[in-house]
Amino acid sequence: IYLKASLDTLVGRIKRRGRAYEQSIQHDYLAYLNQAYDAWIARARKDFFILEINADETDYVNGDDDLNELVAQIQKHCP
C-alpha cells in the first residue's frame, strides 16, 4: 500500500504536526524521496500488486470518512 502525496501536501502535514525534529527537513530532500519512491514502485509493480492511493486530499487522522474509504479500498484488494 502506497499512500502517495505531493510535496506541498507533505510539507503542509509536517508543519501542522509541529514536531521539532521534522521542521528542518529540506524540501529538496522530500522531493528526492518522492522520486525515489516513484521509481521503486514502478520496479516493484513488475512483481507485486501495489495499491497506490492519492493521499493529497485525504485526512486519515481527523477524517473518519477518509479512513473508512481507505479501509474499504484495502479490503477490496486484500479480502
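[next item in queue]
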Amino acid sequence: GQDVTECTGGAQAITEANLSARYHTHCDPRLNAKQSLELAFLLAEILKDGRDRQPKRAAAGR
C-alpha cells in the first residue's frame, strides 16, 4: 500500500502536525504499513493474554 500519514499515534508517534505530509483521503483514514503491523502485533498479544487467562479445559472424552 501507499505510505500514508492519515492516523495519529503509534510507535512512529505521528501527530496532527505530521498528517499533511502524505494525507491522501479526507474520509476513511488508513493506517500506514508500520501502523498496521504494530496493530497486528498488539492484537495478537491481547488475544494471547486472553487465551492464557482462560481456565484449562480437560481433553474431550477423557
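[queue empty]
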